[in-house]
Amino acid sequence: MVNEAALDAFYKTVDQNQDDYVERLREAVAIPSISSMVDHRDDVVRMSHWLTSLFEKLGIKYEVRDIGSHVMDNVDLKLPPIILGTYGNDPNKKTILVYGHYDVQPALLEDGWSSKPFDMIESPKGQLIGRGASDDKGPIIGWLNAIEAHQNAEIDFPVNLKICFEGMEENGSEGLEKLIANEADKYFKGVDAVCISDNYWLGVTKPCLTYGLRGICAYKVTVCGPGKDLHSGVFGGTVHEPMTDLFHLFSKLVTPNGDILIPGINDDVAPLTDEENQAYQSLEFSLSELHSAIESKTNIYDNEIETLQHRWRYPSLSIHGIEGAFSSSGFKTVLPAKVSGKFSIRIVPNMEPKRVDELVEKFLKDEFAKLGSKNTLSTECLHSGKAWLANPNHWNYVAASKAVERIFKCKPDLTREGGSIPVTLTFQDALNKNVLLLPMGRGDDGAHSINEKLDRSNYIQGIKLFGAYLHEIASCKAE
Ligand code: BES
Ligand code: ZN
C-alpha cells in the first residue's frame, strides 16, 4: 500500500520549494558541459564536481570513477568521470538504478537562440530556456530534488537508489559499457529495475512511458586531396576537388524522401506485425503537434502513423555536417584540401551495427571508385549502438503508469522513440533487469536544437512523478 499521507507531504514540499529547484537548474545550465568539444572538457568535469557537492549535501554516498582517456580532434583528453551514487541500503526495500547524463550538446547564441544558451531564463509562459534544461539536467536534478523533498518533508525514502550519471552520453558514452560490464556483479548488484529519464513526451499534453529506442551508427567520411587549401581561380578545373567528391558521394546515400540507398540496409529490419500496427492506432499524436515541434510543415509523411513508424521502427539516415569546408558568412573562393562529412544511420531491431558498417564502407568505396578521382577516401565509424526494446508489461512499467495517473490524472501512452541512449540496452543485457524510460519533458522541448526548454510545470510535476513512481515501486508486487 502506498503511504498516501507521506506522498501528500512530499508533493507539498515540492511545491513549496519549486523556486529553489529552478535556481538549482539555472546553476547547472550555467556550466557549459559540452562533451563533444575539446575546449569544454574542463566544464564537463566541473559539472561532475557540482553534482558531487550536491550528493554530499544530500547525504548520498558516491564514488567518482575515472574511466581513462580518449583522443578527440587529435587531442588526448581525459574522459569525464562516471558518478556512482548509493542512497539507502535497506534489504527490505527494492533497489532502483537511476541513470542520466550531465553533458550537453553544443550551443551558440549565433545558432539562432533568442537568449544566451547557458544563462537560463524563464519565459512568461513558464518555459525554462537553456541548453540542457530538458536534456538531461532537469531530469537528473529532478531525482536529487525528489530525495531532498523526502528529507525536508521528513518522510521515509521508499526504495534504495543507485545512481549512475555520466558525462559522455552526447558523444557516444565512451567507457560506460565497460564500466557496467565490470560492475554488474559489484556496484550494480542487487538492482531490481532501472529507470532513465532522458526522453520526452510524444506531444505537449500527455505523458508517456517509453519502451523502445532506435540505435545509431555514426560515420565520418574524409576525402583528402591537395596538400593545402588552394585558390579556386588558379587551381579550379585542374585538380580533383575533395568537396566535389564528397557531394557526389553523399548525394547517393539517401533520397530527399528519406529512403536510404545503401544496398542491403533494409534487409534485416524487423517486419511490422499486425499487433504492432494495431498499437499505433490508439496513440495521441497529431501532425499539428509535429508541425509546432519542427516549426514548419516540412514533414515527409502526411499521416501520423507512418510518421511515427518512420521515427520509431524504420531506419533513417541523416547528414549532419562537413568539417574542413568554408562555412562562415562572406565568400571565400577557396578549394578546401581535406573535408570530412558526417552522417549517421538510426538503426532498428534486428539491425546489427557490424553489418551496417560493412554495407556502408563497401558502398562508399564502390561509389568513390566510380568517380575516378585521384583523391583519397577514408571512412571511420565514430560510435554505434543497437536498438533497444523492453517489456512494457513489467511491474516497473505498471508502477510508473500508476504514478502518472496520480500526478497527471490520465493513463500514459506507451511509446517507442527515434533517438538513442545506448546504455538502455547495456543495462538490460548486463544486469538482466527491466529498463524503463520515464520522461520529464515535452515533445517540443527542442533537445539538441535552439531554445531548448523545459516547462516549469513539467520540471515540478516531474519531480513529483519520480517520487510517486518510487512509492509505487515500493508497494508493487515484483513477479
Ligand atoms: N535524450 C537523447 C535521446 C533521445 C532523443 C531519446 C529523442 C528519445 C527521443 C539523448 O541525450 C541523445 O540525444 N542521445 C544521442 C546519442 C548518440 C550521440 C549516441 C542521440 O540520440 O543522438
Ligand atoms: Zn539526453
Automatic annotation (TrEMBL):
<feature type="binding site" description="in other chain">
    <location>
        <position position="448"/>
    </location>
    <ligand>
        <name>substrate</name>
    </ligand>
</feature>
<keyword id="KW-0479">Metal-binding</keyword>
<feature type="binding site">
    <location>
        <position position="101"/>
    </location>
    <ligand>
        <name>Mn(2+) 2</name>
    </ligand>
</feature>
<keyword id="KW-0464">Manganese</keyword>
<feature type="binding site">
    <location>
        <position position="333"/>
    </location>
    <ligand>
        <name>substrate</name>
    </ligand>
</feature>
<dbReference type="GO" id="GO:0046872">
    <property type="term" value="F:metal ion binding"/>
</dbReference>
<keyword id="KW-0482">Metalloprotease</keyword>
<feature type="binding site">
    <location>
        <position position="198"/>
    </location>
    <ligand>
        <name>Mn(2+) 2</name>
    </ligand>
</feature>
<feature type="binding site">
    <location>
        <position position="448"/>
    </location>
    <ligand>
        <name>Mn(2+) 1</name>
    </ligand>
</feature>
<feature type="binding site" description="in other chain">
    <location>
        <position position="420"/>
    </location>
    <ligand>
        <name>substrate</name>
    </ligand>
</feature>
<dbReference type="InterPro" id="IPR017153">
    <property type="entry name" value="CNDP/DUG1"/>
</dbReference>
<dbReference type="Pfam" id="PF01546">
    <property type="entry name" value="Peptidase_M20"/>
</dbReference>
<dbReference type="GO" id="GO:0006508">
    <property type="term" value="P:proteolysis"/>
</dbReference>
<feature type="binding site">
    <location>
        <position position="170"/>
    </location>
    <ligand>
        <name>Mn(2+) 1</name>
    </ligand>
</feature>
<dbReference type="Pfam" id="PF07687">
    <property type="entry name" value="M20_dimer"/>
</dbReference>
<dbReference type="GO" id="GO:0070573">
    <property type="term" value="F:metallodipeptidase activity"/>
</dbReference>
<comment type="similarity">
    <text>Belongs to the peptidase M20A family.</text>
</comment>
<feature type="active site">
    <location>
        <position position="103"/>
    </location>
</feature>
<feature type="binding site" description="in other chain">
    <location>
        <position position="346"/>
    </location>
    <ligand>
        <name>substrate</name>
    </ligand>
</feature>
<keyword id="KW-0645">Protease</keyword>
<dbReference type="InterPro" id="IPR001261">
    <property type="entry name" value="ArgE/DapE_CS"/>
</dbReference>
<protein>
    <recommendedName>
        <fullName>Peptidase M20 dimerisation domain-containing protein</fullName>
    </recommendedName>
</protein>
<feature type="site" description="Important for catalytic activity">
    <location>
        <position position="231"/>
    </location>
</feature>
<keyword id="KW-0378">Hydrolase</keyword>
<dbReference type="InterPro" id="IPR002933">
    <property type="entry name" value="Peptidase_M20"/>
</dbReference>
<feature type="domain" description="Peptidase M20 dimerisation">
    <location>
        <begin position="211"/>
        <end position="369"/>
    </location>
</feature>
<feature type="binding site">
    <location>
        <position position="135"/>
    </location>
    <ligand>
        <name>Mn(2+) 2</name>
    </ligand>
</feature>
<dbReference type="InterPro" id="IPR011650">
    <property type="entry name" value="Peptidase_M20_dimer"/>
</dbReference>
<feature type="binding site">
    <location>
        <position position="231"/>
    </location>
    <ligand>
        <name>substrate</name>
    </ligand>
</feature>
<feature type="binding site" description="in other chain">
    <location>
        <position position="198"/>
    </location>
    <ligand>
        <name>substrate</name>
    </ligand>
</feature>
<dbReference type="InterPro" id="IPR051458">
    <property type="entry name" value="Cyt/Met_Dipeptidase"/>
</dbReference>
<feature type="binding site">
    <location>
        <position position="135"/>
    </location>
    <ligand>
        <name>Mn(2+) 1</name>
    </ligand>
</feature>
<feature type="active site" description="Proton acceptor">
    <location>
        <position position="169"/>
    </location>
</feature>
